[in-house]
Amino acid sequence: MLTQHLRPAAISGFLIVFLSGLGLAQPTPTDSTKGGPLDLGKMWTFDDPPKEYFRKTYNFTADEKWFDESRLASLRFAAYCSASFVSANGLVMTNHHCARESGTGVARKGEDLNATGFYAKTPTEERKVDGLFVDQLVKIEDITKRIQEAMSSAGASQGQTDASQLQAREQAFEAVKQEYSTKDGWKGLELQTITFYNGGRYALYGFKRYTDVRLVFMPELQLGFFGGDPDNFTYPRYALDCSFFRVYDNGKPLQTTHFFKFNTNGVRDGEPIFVIGNPGNTERLKTVAELEFDRDLQTPATIQLLRNRSSALQVYNATAKNDSILNEIFSYENSLKAYGGQLAGLRDAGLLGRKAVFERQFKADAKAKNLPAEQLKTWDDMAASMAQLRTLFNDATYLAPNERTSGALLAFAGVLIQFNDLLTSRPQDAERARSLVETPTVSNKQLEEAYLAAHLAEAQTGLGNDDPYVKAAFTGPNGQFKSPKEAAAYLISHTKLNDPAFIKELATRPGAIGSSTDPMLVLARIGFPRYLKAARQARDISQQQEVLRSQLGRMLYAVYGTAVPPDATFSLRINDGIVKGYAYNGTQAPILTTFAGLYDRNYSFGDKAPWSLPARWKNPPAELLKQPMCFISTNDIIGGNSGSPMINKNREAVGLVFDGNMESLPGEFIFVPDLNRSVSVHAGGIIAAMRYIYKADRLVTELTGTAASKAKK
């Protein structure tokens, strides 16, 4: 499931790990003697479409019209998925797991669309999804020179500080958007500045936003997420992970000439194939020093945080049975598996070896280009900054106050410590700040205790038993607590931070916060100052690293130009691959699966979740069983590509991307297509399900292009 994975987040400008082992797959042996620019992947931009590369690689000439039509038929689905137009009547195709974010919101009283799915038999039954929008990229402008000059000028005039350059960049972004918002052809568009090559290139994108989007078709959760988390990021696969919406314009279905016609005839082994979508984020330009930091510290900590929060929610939801919490668990588990695969890749000496080979080649090529000596020091400067960051990691991570990592009460204790510092350092602002000090709301004591216990366990592991913070957390009036759970239960039962009267007294009585014996405040007085010091230093280092990454990006572009695509930034990309099987589990993965395999998996697991099937799927017609369901290809995808159309050279939709295999998960930092595979729902499989199970004749007619006028009635 290719939704964008939960990541460490920054709060109040400071470095805070927001979320995070997992039984990790054994690394695949990789030839570390190889490595080069193409390890950075194939996520080509529409600013510089790879016409010559496609011609040389596939003997396929894609002209400007081919790329323009492909771009205009492709969409960004809200702020988290991809999609495409697939009919002249504004029909939009995306994944089921994207529809779960929005489609279920149109359920009426007594309906459970996760259980029943949805199909609008007539146009009048199509349901508008409030707040949902799709964006079509219609304008592109190169603004590189303007942004880089603004940054250079700021650095020259303000002593080359990292903060001044970044501030100048943001100001230049705003000025560009303001200017273009009044230009002919750009008025009324959603404007977004896009950064490529970490600052090697910049562009302004103009999107036409459609806000009247209506649900047309969505299968049951049992089909859209068949196999659940156990089958996630695996192959062979049997998920009908599709859904369809329709864009309306002035109350009528949008009429468009930009769409991908359905081709249900299948895909051939070795056939060139293209994915167009919005990959969320890759970090393939990272240096070896950065990747080693991720391997040793950041990624393991993130996995631990994710696992603990998911476990807490699963225990709670065993009795609560809350759909929104279930979706949150899905997100955690999806991210857990993704980060687990990334960590396995980071621990693969072959993959890190390839990165080292490319780094050496990049340095040599940059030197051969006679780039300035100051730029050639960038790798050393980055390594030095990563060494600094390592010394700050524990305090910046394990002492971070955040209600999702440590519970609302301990996070609030940190707020009070910050308020107390304000009383001393800036008494003139104290009264205004006092009005913001409100008693935290603990909506669920079970989750509050679980989050706090998880935080204490992580602090114990990360900081060690001899750390003053850990000692204070695990020491009660009768000695040492036996477990994080016991310590958390004591802290929550003995704090008064959920008492409004107590909070009012603390906020108004001088010295009360600093002298209080409340156990949460005692703990926060030890941990929060350490966190604040480390987070501020980490913030400064992060600014320095952002400038260093920009220098690396500019060097990469100077050396290789558009022959190497930039990292993903949730901006529209086109990538190429071929339909191809691969060796796995001692055998060979077929290029496609069939509905017969769906039923085999269902029967093999005794019709138990997550391999159970709805009643209407229990007695399929024989013709359905031999129809293709999913297929694989070597395309380069990542989170955010969910809902991307898979098209052939004729710009026909042959599939719908929804996942990658386990071997694709290191794609966060390197693209090695040997075993990396994208997994798509087959266009023929979508039509087969609509025809044989859902009796969605109206959509079958519209998608297959026969009697198109009938679809409008």
Strand content: 15-25%
Alpha-beta content class: alpha+beta
Please report the distance between the alpha carbons of the first and last residues. 35 Å
Shape, please?
globular
Write down the overall mean pLDDT: 91
Q: How would a textbook summarize the main sheet?
A: 11 strands, antiparallel
Annotated CATH architecture of the largest domain? Beta Barrel
Function: Catalyzes the removal of dipeptides from the N-terminus of oligopeptides.
Family: Belongs to the peptidase S46 family.
Pfam families: Peptidase_S46
Protein name: Dipeptidyl-peptidase
Features:
disordered C terminus; 27 helices; eleven-stranded antiparallel β-sheet; 713 residues; alpha+beta; globular; nine-stranded mixed β-sheet; single chain; Thrombin, subunit H
Structure explained in plain terms:
- This protein has 713 residues and is α+β, with helices and mostly antiparallel strands.
- It has 3 domains: 44-133 and 211-278 and 572-711, Thrombin, subunit H; 134-210, no CATH class; 288-537, no CATH class.
- It is 46% helix and 16% strand.
- The protein has 27 helices and 26 strands.
- Strands 4, 5, 6, 7, 8, 9, 10, 11, 12, 13 and 14 form an 11-stranded antiparallel β-sheet that branches.
- A hairpin with a 5-residue loop joins strand 5 (81-85) and strand 6 (91-94).
- It is globular, with a radius of gyration of 27 Å.
- It starts with 8 loop residues before the first strand and ends with a helix.
- 48% of the residues are buried.
- The model is unreliable at 6-29 and 707-713 (pLDDT under 50).
